[in-house]
Design a protein that fits this description.
alpha+beta, 8-stranded mixed sheet, 5-stranded mixed sheet, 15 strands
Length: about 280
């Protein structure tokens, strides 16, 4: 079990109050327990069905972790909305609209399902908690948890309080030039993102740099936030991929924008995260 110094977390123990400390405890606890569910399925189940093609798949593990997370969130926060990758919006209190809920949890119960289905140990549980903004349509990200299940690393961020790995404060890369940086690319090459790949190839003619594509937004965000990689360019993800990532990366010291160079907004389908002086 991960030893989380920023909050006392024990598997299966959740607390109810709404205060910041309690959200932190509940969030980290259910994230760890969802990871335990995934670990129990790893290497034992294959693809249950796909979402249009064989690279976008769902397993029994996705569904089991999803059911667990929704049940626990609704049990503790019946007035909160939930947006799940697997099953969309949920609201236990039927008199309220989940899409317009004051508090909203986004959950990706198994980010990196293709890796998982092929027994590649690079996948994560991703959760964010946001509050409806009174000033704009963009939600206010407050809390985020990303759990690298097979490495037993819990990444946590809270707005204005920093980013953490297993309870210890972390900071991202401090690089100021692209030369000899090592970054991360998200998504696979296709018509909609060929301009990104082309731009990288052109830039590589001027400066030497490398990158990897881990097949999981959660793993990419965690590696960048911990300073293991210097930047991350994501394309084609959804809010359940990017909301937890954005808060973690910002709190680790990165500048995070969409592909137009503007601050990332709710439902933007791409992001660029780099050290502030490296941003393009």
């Amino acid at each position: 079990m991960v030893r989380v110094q920023l909050a006392t977390v024990r598997s299966g123990v959740y607390t109810v109050p709404m205060e910041s400390t309690q959200i932190k405890k509940n969030l980290t606890a259910i994230t760890l327990d969802a990871g335990k569910i995934l670990r129990g399925y790893f290497g034992k189940v294959g693809v249950k069905y796909n979402k249009g093609n064989s690279l976008n798949v769902v397993t029994e593990a996705d569904l089991a972790a999803n059911t667990f997370l929704i049940k626990q969130i609704q049990k503790k926060y019946p007035n909160h909305g939930i947006l799940s990758e697997e099953t969309g919006y949920h609201q236990k209190n039927r008199s309220k609209n989940a899409k317009n809920a004051e508090w909203l949890w986004t959950i990706d119960p198994l980010d990196g399902t293709l890796n998982f289905s092929r027994r590649i140990p690079l996948f994560a549980v991703m959760i964010s908690v946001s509050k409806k903004s009174a000033k704009s349509k963009n939600r206010d990200l407050r809390y985020a948890a990303i759990y690298d299940v097979m490495q037993n690393e819990l990444f946590y961020a809270e707005k204005g309080k920093g980013a953490f790995r297993n309870g210890k404060r972390i900071h991202g890369s401090k690089k100021t030039t692209w030369t000899e940086t090592f970054g991360l690319m998200g998504g696979r090459p296709k018509k909609g993102n060929r301009h990104l790949w082309k731009a990288l190839i052109v830039h590589a003619e001027k400066e030497k740099f490398g990158f990897l594509s881990p097949g999981s937004a959660g793993i990419a965000a965690a590696y960048a936030a911990a300073g293991r990689c210097d930047w991350w360019i994501g394309k084609g993800g959804y809010v359940w991929d990017y909301a937890p990532s954005v808060l973690l990366l910002k709190e680790a010291g990165y500048r995070v924008t969409n592909h137009d160079g503007k601050p990332w907004k709710w439902n933007d389908r791409g992001l660029i995260a780099t050290p502030p002086k490296l941003h393009v």
